[in-house]
Amino acid sequence: MLKKIQIIVNVAASTNFGERYDDALGINTFGALNVLNFGKKCDEVKLFLHISTAYVGGEETGIILEKGENLKRRNDINIFEEKRLAEELLSQLQNQCIPDKAITSSMKEFGLERAKMNGWPNTYVFTKAMGEMLLGKFKGDLPLVIIRPTIIASTYKQPFPGWIEGVRTMDVVLVNYGKGKLTCFPGNLNSALDVIPVDMVVNAMVVAMEVHYAQHQYSCETIYHVGTSSKNPLKLSDLRNLVHYYFTKNPWIDTNGQKVEVGKLIVVSTINRFFLYMKIKYVLPLKVFYLINILCCQRFEKIYTNLNRRVKFILRLAEFYKPYSFFTGIFDDRNLERLQRVAEERGVDLAEFNFDSRSIDWEDYIMNSHIPGLLNQGLL
């Protein structure tokens, strides 16, 4: 195997925003380094392709270039010290003989704490950023290509429109809105929600492999943003309107066989206003209901528990997704443009391997592919 492998592709990742810190480090950070070290042992390897995320730079603004400089300015992070801290905390928790569930909760909280302390919004992007740092530092002469996709959504065309597995990222918000469980959310209606169909990401990967394998430039490092904010932005206001229109025409059917009516999602312009809105409309009334439940000998316990769980879920969802619903950065994709030109010159069929975001008709994609695919495939 070591004498035959010529291209190595690393797509392994934990995409859970609040993953256990030890697990996220093991997969997103040191997992990438382990694959790199394996690649350096291969005699014929000519390319290492790594899949990262466009948000490794944290909550940036303005034009975000396809370069590693947005990480280099934070190279004071001691990544091996982060690993030691995670291992030390885990050992302490295990020595206390506390339940596994409590250990998991503590490790998740520690990951978010370390991420925010170092300037990243969540454990996922923090550990992916550290993974990129390690690859840049230890790649040696191995040509490195990093694909940084934005928010990945269902397929645009291949293998068929709307294909998706599971419910993640923005789809959690869409599904809960359609079910009538989410009526408000924080966000900037004028900002672009940078969404990219997954098949376009895969096509960019395939074309990058073909082009860079042929060029075989030693020691080079190339970064590609695969997204839509630069060439074909989807405004949060447009997405809200499309989703409202879809669920008005195709209402969710609840467990009782009743159609769920939804109003237009209330988008609150600041996170503080959102939390104030939630406090006045839900949290305080829920506290009153809690007292009523006690006075009525827990008669409404089940109702209270369900409402409390729902409110906590919405608050947690808002906390996790606020970096993206308020994101104002635009991901420059000039490297990706050059890749398209070189691929075309080499005779690559860019109609078959399409990753041009300008080809996306957002209304058609959201209404006829993404939401139907999400409901039919993602919720299976």
Automatic annotation (TrEMBL):
Alphabetical keyword list: Lipid biosynthesis, Lipid metabolism, NADP, Oxidoreductase
InterPro entries for the chain: FAR, FAR_C, FAR_NAD-bd, NAD(P)-bd_dom_sf
Enzyme class: oxidoreductase
Catalytic activity: a long-chain fatty acyl-CoA + 2 NADPH + 2 H(+) = a long-chain primary fatty alcohol + 2 NADP(+) + CoA
Domain Thioester reductase (TE): residue ranges: 3-205
Every Fatty acyl-CoA reductase C-terminal domain range: 282-374
GO molecular function, one term: alcohol-forming long-chain fatty acyl-CoA reductase activity
Pfam families reported in the protein's UniProt record: NAD_binding_4, Sterile
SUPFAM superfamilies: NAD(P)-binding Rossmann-fold domains
Biological process annotations from GO: long-chain fatty-acyl-CoA metabolic process; suberin biosynthetic process
Highest taxon listed in the record's lineage: Eukaryota
EC number(s) on file: 1.2.1.84
Keyword Kinase in annotation: no
Family membership: Belongs to the fatty acyl-CoA reductase family.
Function: Catalyzes the reduction of fatty acyl-CoA to fatty alcohols.
PANTHER family hit by this protein: FATTY ACYL-COA REDUCTASE 1, MALE STERILITY PROTEIN 2-RELATED
Protein name: Fatty acyl-CoA reductase
